[in-house]
From TrEMBL:
SMART domains cross-referenced by the UniProt entry: HTH_LUXR, REC
Protein name (database record): Transcriptional regulatory protein LiaR
Organism field: Pseudonocardia autotrophica (Amycolata autotrophica)
Gene3D superfamilies xrefs: 3.40.50.2300
One Pfam family from the record: Response_reg
Domain spans labelled HTH luxR-type: 148-213
């Protein structure tokens, strides 16, 4: 059962998301918060598998809450659900350590799928935003201090291979089948790899890979081949 916390300052949105997710047999909505401060307190008390956060909320923003929930020692996966697709909000959420970013007007099935992906340790970004976000991150190149050259020194060949597969959108199960290893082995490699890159989530690792030209971003000149 996936335990979910929902935080949004709009009553209708809270009720709608709670009804949508609560109708799924594998999802249990354990808490609903109307502001950022309450969301942070409830998340610490309830320790949900996924915290679904709005960005603009009274008290503390969703980005502030995500930054605390994704910090070492807490590490509660965050899915940001918002009506805003402004780049600064997306970048802020990713830099805070959020595992996913989705627009509220997404298809209900996509929202449910995103919750399951984040709970399973997989990152997700609204498909209409993905390429634009990756291109912008490549130009900004400011998310993490570790450089691509330094990563080549830090990562083992297997970790580098897993990073490339992550960037292709593969799940742990997909990677395990591709490399003919157990899922537990993939998880162990990920647990060692993320700190080396200075990131806290799979999604940040993928963004890092594009940002440091470990993999190519379509339409961006000068990407490594």
């Amino acid at each position: 059962m996936i335990r979910v916390l929902i935080a949004d300052d709009q009553p209708l949105v809270r009720a709608g998301l709670a009804s949508l997710m609560g109708a799924e047999p594998d999802i249990d909505v354990v808490g609903v918060a109307a502001d950022g401060t309450s969301a942070l307190e409830m998340a610490r008390d309830l320790v949900p598998d996924v915290a679904c956060l709005d960005i603009r909320m009274p008290g503390r923003s969703g980005i502030d809450v995500a930054r605390e929930l994704c910090a070492p020692g807490t590490e509660i996966p965050v899915l940001v659900l918002t009506t805003f697709d402004l780049d600064d909000y997306v970048f802020g959420a990713l830099e805070a350590g959020a595992s996913g970013f989705l627009l509220k007007d997404s298809d209900p099935d996509d929202i449910i799928r995103a919750v399951r992906q984040v709970a399973a340790g997989q990152g997700t970004i609204d498909q209409t935003l993905t390429r634009r976000i990756l291109r912008e991150f490549v130009h900004r190149r400011s998310l993490q201090p570790v450089t691509g050259r330094r990563a080549e020194e830090l990562l083992t060949p297997r970790e580098h291979e897993i990073l490339l597969l992550l960037a292709q959108g593969m799940s742990n199960d997909d990677i395990a089948r591709t490399l003919v290893v157990e899922q537990s082995t993939v998880k162990s490699h990920l647990a060692r790899m993320l700190p080396k890159l200075g990131v806290t989530s799979r999604l940040q690792a993928v963004v890092w890979a594009y940002q440091n030209r470990v993999v190519d971003v379509p339409g961006v000149r000068g990407a490594a081949g």
